[in-house]
């Protein structure tokens, strides 16, 4: 993960914590499961996952689309990047019940 993605991910975590006070956010280890989304968000009895990108055309790793679709079928999971951030936040609020 590049420096720009690290910075954006850190900013996202702060924004999500403001949207969902008391939530727990953990960063997943892509080395353990290649392609697993970057962030797991636990809020009450609900959860969501996000794959962080710095832009719409940022490259994806093998299996990322598979895991985003797989986890989205279970709860909520999405790619997130600045151009669609507000849309994803809205969807997160619907999925996590806030």
Walk across the major sheet and give the strand order: 1-2-3-4
What is the percentage of strand-forming residues? Answer: 15-25%
- Rg is 12 Å
Uncertain segments are none
Mean pLDDT: 93
Second rung of CATH, namely the architecture: 3-Layer(aba) Sandwich
Count, helices: 3
Instruction: Give the proportion of residues in helices.
Output: 40-55%
Topology pattern, helix = H, strand = E: HEEEHEH
**Class of secondary structure makeup:** alpha+beta
Broad CATH class? Alpha Beta
Largest sheet: 4 strands, mixed
What is the CATH topology assignment? Trna Endonuclease, Chain: A, domain 1
User: How many beta-strand elements?
Assistant: 4
Shape: globular
Ends distance? 30 Å
Structurally, how many domains make up the residues? 1
